[in-house]
């Protein structure tokens, strides 16, 4: 079945019933993650908000629950997850495994953008450590519960700017000539390298789960909080004309997670001009994202550095 089948203008209304499905969404206290979690919960999924701040997570869960129809079950659950700490990732994964015999959807959404140089608890450069290594480890640790589902999906959120990403495997710590924007771009390229390699391995092993990716285009979210005052002011001025809401930005993720026609390895993004805004369609990743050697090398480095080894 074609990944492009379905409505011409796919919206949240096209998300089918999710009753009985468990969806784990990282970074779900605001922006794309919150909107993704909200729609999945409205469609009946048991949603777990995996958040760095449990307090913010509980507030987000209560906000989602307040808007749910009476026919929908419980308030979303909250699991504390700091993707900048492998110890936290392991604790969160253990809690999720204990609470849920199967997980149907894993939405790797959380991330940081354009932050000054710093390292995670485990010594990884912040962008790559949080945006990629943390999600890589979480996916691997949750794999037994994902494999228990009949048709699990793993959706990782990338970005338009992955096209500018370059990965120097001899300097994964980014100790040479650090630039925040370049570090963010390479982490978003890593998200796609991971997705495509994960899909290849799942298919080769004959497993029913699939891996997909999405990007939100140019959307108004808290990711821009680390930008300069001048850039924030400029974005405030042009935002109403050039940017879309977080609800629209979440649609590519939702389509990857719930469109019954979506195929493993598919990448969704907005269908408007330069993929900045619009309804979600299948989009093309860069040539670098399809580099088989880079996919395999990043996978090997990720297993070694996180000490999370996938069984295939």
Approximate helicity band: 40-55%
Largest sheet: 8 strands, mixed
Tally of helical segments:
9
Question: How much strand?
Answer: 5-15%
Q: What is the overall pLDDT average? A: 93
Spatial shape? globular
Question: What is the H/E string?
Answer: EHEHEHEHEHEHHHEEH
- Structure summary, number of beta strands: 8
Read across the widest sheet, the strand sequence of neighbours is 3-2-1-4-5-6-7-8
Uncertain regions spanning at least 5 consecutive residues: 226-235
The structural class is alpha/beta
Distance between the termini: 26 Å
Radius of gyration: 18 Å
Give short descriptive properties of this protein.
8 strands; 312 residues; 8-stranded mixed β-sheet; globular
3D architecture notes:
The chain has an eight-stranded mixed beta sheet with strand order 3-2-1-4-5-6-7-8, sandwiched between helices. The chain contains nine helices and eight strands. 41% of the residues lie in helices and 12% in strands. About 3% of the residues have low confidence. With 312 residues, it is an alpha/beta fold. α4 links the parallel β4 and β5.
Gist of the model:
The protein is α/β, with parallel strands linked by helices. 41% of the residues lie in helices and 12% in strands.
Secondary-structure blueprint of this entry?
Elements: E1 22-26, H1 31-42, E2 46-51, H2 54-66, E3 77-80, H3 86-99, E4 105-108, H4 126-147, E5 153-157, H5 180-204, E6 210-214, H6 229-242, H7 246-249, H8 251-258, E7 267-270, E8 280-282, H9 292-306
Parallel strand pairs: 1-2, 1-4, 2-3, 4-5, 5-6, 6-7
Antiparallel strand pairs: 7-8
Helix pairs in contact: 3-4, 4-5, 4-9, 5-9
């Amino acid at each position: 079945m074609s990944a492009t089948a379905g409505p011409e203008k796919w919206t949240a209304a096209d998300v089918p019933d999710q009753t009985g499905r468990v969806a784990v969404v990282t970074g779900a206290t605001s922006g794309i993650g919150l909107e993704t979690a909200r729609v999945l919960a409205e469609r009946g999924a048991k949603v777990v908000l995996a958040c760095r701040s449990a307090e913010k997570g509980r507030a987000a869960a209560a906000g989602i629950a307040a808007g749910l129809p009476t026919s929908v079950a419980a308030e979303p659950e909250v699991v504390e997850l700091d993707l900048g700490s492998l110890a936290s990732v392991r604790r969160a994964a253990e809690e999720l495994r204990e609470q849920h015999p199967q997980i149907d959807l894993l939405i790797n959404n959380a991330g940081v953008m354009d932050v000054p140089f710093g390292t995670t608890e485990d010594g990884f450069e912040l962008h790559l450590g949080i945006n990629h290594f943390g999600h890589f480890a979480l996916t691997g640790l949750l794999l037994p519960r994902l494999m228990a589902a009949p048709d699990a999906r793993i959706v990782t959120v990338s970005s338009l700017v992955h096209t500018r990403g370059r990965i120097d495997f001899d300097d994964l710590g980014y100790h040479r000539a650090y630039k925040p924007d370049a570090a963010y771009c390479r982490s978003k390229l890593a998200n796609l390298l991971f997705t495509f390699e994960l899909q290849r391995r799942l298919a080769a092993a004959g497993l029913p789960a699939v891996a997909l990716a999405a990007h939100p285009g140019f959307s108004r979210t808290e990711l821009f909080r680390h930008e300069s005052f001048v850039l924030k002011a400029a974005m405030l001025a042009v935002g109403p004309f050039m940017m879309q809401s977080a609800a629209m930005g979440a649609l590519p993720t939702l389509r990857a997670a719930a469109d019954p026609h979506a195929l493993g390895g598919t990448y969704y993004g907005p269908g408007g001009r330069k993929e900045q805004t619009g309804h979600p369609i299948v989009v093309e990743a860069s040539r670098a994202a399809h580099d088989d050697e880079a996919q395999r090398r990043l996978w090997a480095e990720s297993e070694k550095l996180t000490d999370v080894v996938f069984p295939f």
